[in-house]
Each structure stands twice: as C-alpha cells, then as structure tokens.
C-alpha cells in the first residue's frame, strides 16, 4: 500500500527525473532511464549518452524549467484553446500517461491518468512545462488519490510569483 507521503515523494522524484531528461536533451544528450521497483530505495537511474539530434532536443521545455511556478491564484475566464489542450495531452502521452478533461471554467481541470506514481510525476512535469511554454498558469494538486492539474490564463497585470525552493 502506498501512503500519501510515498505518493508525493514519487511524484516529486518523477518530476525531477523528467527535468533531468529535458535538460540533458536541450544540451544534445539522450538518456536511458532504468526504473526500479526492487525495494532497495533506488527508484530510477539515468544513463546519458551523446546524441546530437536537432529534432529531438527539448529546448523550449528546458527553458521553461526555471520559469515555471505553481500558481494557486484564480485564473481568467478566457477559454484555454483546444490546440493548447492537445499539446498538453501529447506531453502526457509522451510520458506514458493520459489526461482527462474534468471541467472548463476559469481555465481547465485535468485528471492525470497513469500506471504508477513515478511516471505520473514525469507526466505532471511534462504537462506543467508545456503549459509554461504556452504562457499558461498551472498548478498540480493531489486530491483523493488522484493528480489534478489546473491550467488557465493568469491576469496580464498579475504580480510575478516568487521562485520556490527546488
């Protein structure tokens, strides 16, 4: 049985794992990730390999890493375009997860669907970075054993959020 603390820790580890993969890709490195469920405390290891492929580099998501902030403030009533939602869906699916639209009001509420908490963390990172690339505000929430992501437009006059410790 996975406790809430374990879930949060695995989500955070998955997000860090995704950030590492994106940052390496932006520098021209590919990497192989070995995920472990052996119970020895190591959940994954990253094995980088040089592979300069200009078509696989993730420069935009890498640039979004230091800019992304969890934004708990209310979002504008402006609709999030379907093209942005498609982009977010592709980001989740690239991490072997899916998104379900729960509501469209003052942004959108999306449910992350995946098979394990580590991969959900990677997918959450991918969706939040894709939201940032689009210029959307976002926030991930753990609610009743589910990961919910809020995405929407922030007021153009909103004060910038302070950087959080990472």
Low-pLDDT segments: none
Mean pLDDT: 87
Major sheet size, sense and barrel closure: 4 strands, antiparallel
* Total number of strands: 6
Provide the gyration radius in Å: 16 Å
Strands side by side in the biggest sheet = 3-4-6-5
Q: What share of residues is helical?
A: 25-40%
Overall 3D form? globular
Question: What does the oligomeric state look like here?
Answer: single chain
Architecture overview:
With 166 residues, the protein is of the alpha+beta class. The protein is 36% helix and 25% strand. It has a 4-stranded antiparallel β-sheet, with helices on one face. Strand 1 (29-35) and strand 2 (44-50) form a beta hairpin. The mean pLDDT is 87.
Short description:
With 166 residues, the chain is α+β, with helices and mostly antiparallel strands. The protein is 36% helix and 25% strand.
Spell out the blueprint of helices and strands.
Elements: H1 4-26, E1 29-35, E2 44-50, H2 59-64, H3 82-93, E3 98-104, E4 108-113, H4 117-134, E5 137-143, E6 146-152
Antiparallel strand pairs: 1-2, 3-4, 4-6, 5-6
Helix pairs in contact: 1-4, 3-4
Key phrases:
166 residues; 4 helices; two-stranded antiparallel sheet; four-stranded antiparallel sheet; 36% helix; alpha+beta
């Amino acid at each position: 049985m996975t406790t809430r603390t374990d879930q949060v820790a695995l989500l955070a580890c998955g997000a860090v794992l995704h950030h590492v993969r994106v940052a390496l890709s932006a520098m021209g490195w590919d990497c192989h990730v070995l995920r472990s469920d052996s119970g020895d405390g190591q959940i994954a290891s990253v094995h980088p390999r040089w592979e300069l492929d200009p078509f696989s580099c993730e420069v935009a998501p890498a640039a979004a890493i230091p800019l992304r902030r969890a934004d708990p403030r209310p979002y504008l009533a402006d609709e999030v375009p379907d093209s942005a939602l498609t982009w977010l869906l592709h980001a989740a699916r690239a991490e072997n997860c899916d998104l379900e639209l729960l509501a469209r009001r003052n942004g959108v509420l999306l449910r992350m669907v995946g098979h394990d908490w580590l991969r959900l963390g990677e997918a959450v990172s991918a969706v939040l970075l894709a939201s940032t690339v689009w210029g959307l505000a976002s926030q991930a929430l753990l609610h009743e054993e589910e990961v919910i992501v809020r995405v929407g437009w922030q007021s153009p006059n909103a004060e910038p959020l302070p950087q959080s410790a990472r």
